[in-house]
Amino acid sequence: MSLEHMSTADIVSGPLEALSFALPARVTFSRNVFVPITNICRNACGYCGFRRDIGDAEARLMAPAEVETLLRQAKDADCTEALLTFGERPYEVAGFIEKLRRLGYESFLDYLYDLCTMAIRAGLLPHSNPGILTFDELERLKPVNASMGLMLETTASVDAHQGCAGKEPELRLWTIEDAGKLHIPFTTGLLIGIGEDWGDRVRSLELLTELQHKYRHLQEVIIQPFVPKPGTRMADVPSPSREVLLRTVALARHLLPADVAVQVPPNLTEVAPLLGAGASDLGGISTVTVDYINPAHAWPDVANLGIALTERLPIYPQYVRAGWYSEALAPLIGKLADERGFRRKKTGETMAG
Q1: Is residue 351 in some structural domain?
Q2: For the whole model, what pTM was predicted?
């Protein structure tokens, strides 16, 4: 039985072997650099090992010179994507604005805008993961971002999000919808194993499907497993099983429109079985930086995955072809993209595509 003819119940609780299908015709990834602008965050999620309190010795706010050095390294390493990530609304944390002022800025949004511009000048396409933003904030950042992202994580109310103002599902859905209204190519995803159940996973995917039918802006949905980290409230909670991940990937492929890729992180999962269950993208992979969210899990070498990969940009091909980008990004996208909207191959390059 093909996946499209299976019911949701079959996928969630039927025979596991029924979820094994042929590999997708094309498996994609982007070559990126992870730019962790700040690890100061107004939220304090039970699973997060990235966040630091303002007075912590490991709390940081990258200076422009640090970011520029990292961007140059990434360009030299043939990256095309600058993944700009940071804690949500760090300026709501007491003491952060003082740090920002020492860099010459009163507004974090202004600083982020300038860093995106810096990335473009360096030859990299920015992809910002800003947390919850207002419509006006998204509109301000759109011209200097090839794409943007915000993990939905779950529509459930879970203990892991207790006391986290930014993890109210309605607020996150509003941001994702506003991005659609603005025609911003967008990445979102589910975090699996943080206290949600199958009904919550189905509901989350159904709501994302509704948004995609309305705005057509979701380029990918990540199915990301929770990974316990020392020193967090959920340090002793196990990661979801291989079976749960297989079923969730198949569920995502079953419920989401065909033009939305299902992405799985290759440093956190066994890739091949999930590709057989409906995944078709491996996200950003870096040879320059670690995964700062999951630093104990190294990126794989794309040449040794045993899978023919096609390199894409942080803006998916259909949005390149449709011109969903600003004049500020047009010259760089024109240089980096081929006629189909994928990463332009260099002379002598043999990667499948």
Answers
A1: no
A2: 0.96
